[in-house]
Write a structure and sequence with these properties.
- This protein is an alpha/beta fold.
- 41% of the residues lie in helices and 15% in strands.
- Helix 3 packs across helix 8.
- It starts with a helix and ends with a helix.
Length: 293
């Protein structure tokens, strides 16, 4: 009798333990991530040193007198379409940033609101901290403050436009880190028994990228200029595969890319015309992607 009583008590204790484990693993408590962004991208170079380096760099730049800076007005509560422009380019005098200025000006001139998120100006941390992993991968707990702020912009946006130079044929690290940290599970997507479910339906994703490899095209698939067109299209189709997959994962429409591989060279006698041609070509792509819709 005593042994049976002991066995019963032991079973009850074990049962309570199992229930406790289930509650712990099955219903995670709220977790507040306290990590802060401590990056600092302030340059240690003087303006004189920058000017000297710009004179010898292989990077594509715009002559200072030809820079057309533009500051967007940002999102309002209006019912206008909204474009979130996410930029991963450290230099304000680059051909890439000229395309940023051109894009923001053109969209606002055409009644689309623009919110600029310059990741270098923001000192954005692209690194997924170990404490964030469970939020990003499984949606457990709350996001960090910097991520939550960006997610609010994403929610308001009709379009997310990623803009960065071509470094090693992919997103610059700071843009890739923005995607990894901001587009987390239960915000951008979820997963059920049938697979992934995109949660950002009704939004469009577009990429603008400055290259400098072949000089072979400007635009996207089929926009080669007769310099290794087959290779150009092979590159562009590879990007489309990745973009389609990302857009599908997030539930967003992939609107394609504008790839510039023919940048104006300051030492060219046609420099001014080449610069204006690039701007006009970009505007034409923006028109057919966002305005003509």
């Amino acid at each position: 009798m005593k042994s049976q009583l002991k066995s019963l008590i032991l079973m009850i204790i074990l049962g309570i333990g199992v229930i406790g484990v289930y509650k712990y693993t099955g219903k995670p408590k709220e977790i507040n991530i306290k990590m802060i962004n401590s990056n600092n991208y302030s340059s240690t170079l003087s303006q004189e040193e920058k000017n000297r380096l710009d004179g010898i760099t292989s990077a594509s730049i715009i002559i200072s007198k030809d820079i057309l800076e533009y500051i967007p007005k940002g999102f309002t509560n209006s019912d206008k379409k909204k474009a979130l422009v996410v930029v991963g380019e450290p230099r304000k005098n680059s051909v890439m940033y000229d395309m940023v200025y051109t894009t923001m000006r053109y969209l606002e001139e055409n009644n689309i609101e623009v919110e600029l998120r310059d990741l270098y100006d923001m000192n954005w941390s692209p690194v997924l901290h170990p404490d964030e992993f469970y939020y990003q991968k499984d949606g457990i707990g709350k996001s960090t403050e910097d991520v939550a702020k960006e997610q609010e912009f994403v929610k308001k946006a009709d379009y997310i436009i990623f803009m960065y130079p071509d470094w090693h044929d992919m997103d610059t690290a700071i843009v890739k880190g923005y995607k990894e940290r901001v587009f987390a599970r239960k915000f951008a997507y979820d997963i059920n028994e049938n697979g992934p479910i995109g949660l950002l339906k009704g939004k469009g994703m577009f990429t603008i990228m400055n290259c400098g490899y072949l000089g072979g095209g400007r635009g996207f698939i089929g926009d080669g200029v007769g310099i290794e067109d087959e290779k150009w299209d092979r590159y562009m189709n590879a990007y489309k595969v990745f973009d389609d997959d990302t857009g599908n994962w997030w539930g967003m429409e992939n609107l394609g890319r504008f790839m510039n591989d023919r940048y104006p060279k300051p030492n060219s006698t046609n420099y001014k015309n080449d610069l204006e041609k690039l701007r006009e070509d970009l505007k034409s792509y923006l028109f057919k992607t966002f305005i003509k819709k």
